[in-house]
Write a structure and sequence with these properties.
The complex is a heterodimer. Chain A is mainly beta. Chain A contains no helices and 12 strands. Chain A is globular, with a radius of gyration of 14 Å. Chain B has strands at residues 4-7, 10-13, 19-25, 31-38, 42-51, 54-57, 65-66, 76-78, 87-94, 103-104, 108-112. In chain B, strand 4 and strand 5 (42-51) form a beta hairpin. The chains are: A mainly beta, B mainly beta.
Chain lengths: 117, 113
């Protein structure tokens, strides 16, 4: 069965410091990986995705994520955090099985990012 | 403006009173999906639709129905709501089911008393 884990319920960083939000996954086959952000009282917004190719993926608002196949991770990063980055972040994975069949898109439980001035 | 529109945004109802949450997208997307968001559980998929007249169960379909008669609309129906269906519901759409990013509605907060 496929799964995705976000090991930290909350991450606290100071404005201007680098931030990392962790995501690990478990799938049979190749993973398609996504990050979404949810601001208070809003729907989720797409940040970035890894489908194939370069392991370092750049997305919206200065965020990037690195696909690490050996560690089955897809951590979200930003070099310099802003107070406005404070939100709930979700990692999601879809398995593409050998033979081409696809699994459902599975979301992690979310990590609350708090950036203090 | 590209968007997914859900209605109602907030609803308080009583056990057993049928309700429908509407969802409409204006991006001509083929794929649409419903999720519920509960604290500590993240997002769980209820139903999805690959195209008109094609729907399938997600991870938590019990107590819900959907239909896809038109490409733009994907209503979620609770025939007999129960308190355990109190949740925040999101509709989402995508141009492709597999690699496309999802566009989400603003959410519908449902309380069943």
């Amino acid at each position: 069965a496929q799964s995705v884990a976000q090991p930290e319920d909350q991450v606290n960083v100071a404005e201007g410091n680098p931030l990392t939000v962790k995501c690990t996954y478990s799938v049979s086959g190749n993973p398609y990986l996504f990050w979404y952000v949810q601001y208070p009282n809003r729907g989720l917004q797409f940040l970035l995705k890894y489908i194939t190719g370069d392991n370092l993926v750049k997305g919206s608002y200065g965020f990037e994520a690195e696909f690490n196949k050996s560690q089955t991770s897809f951590h979200l990063k930003k070099p310099s955090a802003l107070v406005s980055d404070s939100a709930l972040y979700f990692c999601a994975v879809r398995a593409i099985r050998y033979g081409g069949s696809q699994g459902n898109l599975i979301f992690g439980k979310g990590t609350k990012l708090s950036v203090k001035p | 403006e590209a968007q997914v529109t859900q209605n109602p945004r907030y609803l308080i109802t009583v056990t057993g009173k049928k309700l429908t949450v509407t969802c409409s997208q204006n991006m001509n997307h083929e794929y649409m999906s419903w999720y519920r968001q509960d604290p500590g559980l993240g997002l769980r998929q209820i139903y999805y639709s690959m195209n008109v007249e094609v729907t399938d169960k997600g991870d938590v379909p019990e107590g819900y129905k959907v239909s896809r008669k038109e490409k733009r609309n994907f209503p979620l129906i609770l025939e007999s709501p129960s308190p355990n269906q109190t949740s925040l519901y999101f509709c989402a759409s995508s141009d492709t089911a597999v690699t496309g990013e999802l566009f989400f509605g603003e959410g519908s907060r449902l309380t069943v008393l």
